[in-house]
Amino acid sequence: QVQLAESGGGSVQAGGSLRLSCAASEVTFRYYCMGWFRQAPGKEREGVATLDTFALTTYANSVKGRFTISRDNMKNTLFLQMNSLKPEDTAMYYCAAAAGAYCPTQSNFQYWGQGTQVTVSP
To answer: What is the pLDDT at residue 73?
Structure first.
């Protein structure tokens, strides 16, 4: 049972930056696809970025060029660097993991953290 714990959320003004972290309990962390998802009030959860075991990344068009997903396998930690934040980035951000070399669809991510809130004011 993989446990994930997000941290690093907070309140910032538009244009600011935040770095989210996700600490994983799994010792085979490097064999998992990892992803960041977010959910704003009244909206469905959406994918933000994914990082597979080959270091290939995907980003939602809305965050491309502003966010960077990365991982430190030695520390079992996933990161999301968020720059040039916009009010529309306001959401609860979730870290997720899926066993396997490549990233699956959102519904097939097996493990989820409890989330960390990101609030961006105008």
So the answer is: 87
CB 90 within 8 A of CB 38: no
Q: Where are the beta strands (DSSP E) in 8-83?
A: 10-13, 18-24, 32-39, 46-51, 57-59, 67-72, 77-82
100-110: pLDDT as tens digits? 889 999 999 99
**What would the DSSP string read from start to end of 87-119?**
GGG-EEEEEEEEESSS---GGG--EE---EEEE
Cα angle value 82/83/86 (rounded, 5°): 95
61: left (phi over 0), alpha (psi -120 to 50) or beta: alpha
